[in-house]
Write a structure and sequence with these properties.
- It is a single chain.
- By secondary structure, this protein is α+β, with helices and mostly antiparallel strands.
- The protein has two domains: 221 residues, Endonuclease III, domain 1, CATH 1.10.340; 107 residues, Nucleoside Triphosphate Pyrophosphohydrolase, CATH 3.90.79.
- It contains 14 helices and seven strands.
- The strands form two sheets. Strands 2, 3, 4 and 7 form a four-stranded antiparallel beta sheet that branches. The protein has a three-stranded mixed beta sheet with strand order 1-6-5, with helices on one face.
- Strand 5 and strand 6 form a beta hairpin.
Length: 352
Amino acid sequence: MPALAQKRPRPGDKGPATRDKLRKSLLKWYDREGRDLPWRLRQGRPDPYRVWLSEIMLQQTTVAAVAPYFTRFLERWPDVGALAAAPRDDVLGAWAGLGYYSRARNLHAAAQKMAVNGVPQSEAAWRELPGVGPYTAAAIAAISFDGATNVVDGNVERVIARLRAVDTPLPHAKRELRALAGELVTVDRPGDWAQALMDLGATVCTPRSPRCETCPWANDCAAYASGAPETYPRRAAKAERPRRYGAVFRIERDGELWLVRRPDKGLLGGMAALPTTEWRDKKWTRAEALKHAPVAGAWKKAGAVEHVFTHFALTLDVYKAEIAPPNDGWWGDVSALPTVFKKAAKAGEKRS
């Protein structure tokens, strides 16, 4: 929390700062303090392929985590055509560790569409591609094509909520915050404007302990004037993350595991996996779980693993057996598995 001895005079005494004043001060700050990122060009028009790739990777992932993945992706697939021609399993494998694999599947599908139809330029055209939502489409259109779009992500919501001291809690405030952000957009340097807002939220107007003393908008920020900027944006009480349960089955031969392919639709869609039951709200008894084993046999309990997804926590009981597998799968190694199944594979090793 910033060191504020007392409540500051509200900038609202003279009315909210004008759009031109806010834009001038933020763009001046961005020219001086903007981040150097692997996918960002400070001069010239950024490559839309690089911008698109970075924006998909950055969904629910930090810049520090994304940077090495971004570099490796570009080395293997330097343009849309190369990515479109890559086997999907290679793309999914390279994505391991970046979160939901549906994003990688959509990335590959979108690349294939662009390889045929060309790279879109407008916000609306980007929205037609798999995995490209309102924020991503607006960001690419602004950064790569100078579109005067309203680019609003979590960082921008936080900045605007503090600038205007919006008391409506998230997520209910999203429409209001988007409208307020849109009032600041012009045709002048739209790409730089979008990135400046993102950088301000990521480096100065941070969720906790905002560095208000270095903020170009400090004198115009209603939340800073209140003396408690870190309390914005307001948030509705979070519901407790639900828990689900399942059982997973480990068959090993000469250091390899029997793997299956998960359905394309749904969580971890299209990924390699260990055979598993469905994941449900109720715990599985041993008898229930073994009815769903890939093949009958002398299954032994080898432990349990915990994994947390964005929307739920998961407990998986791990069963192992020395047994001939069914036909619908293949032998592979643990490197092909997403994290939750790597944990299950490791749990099975402990009692080998």
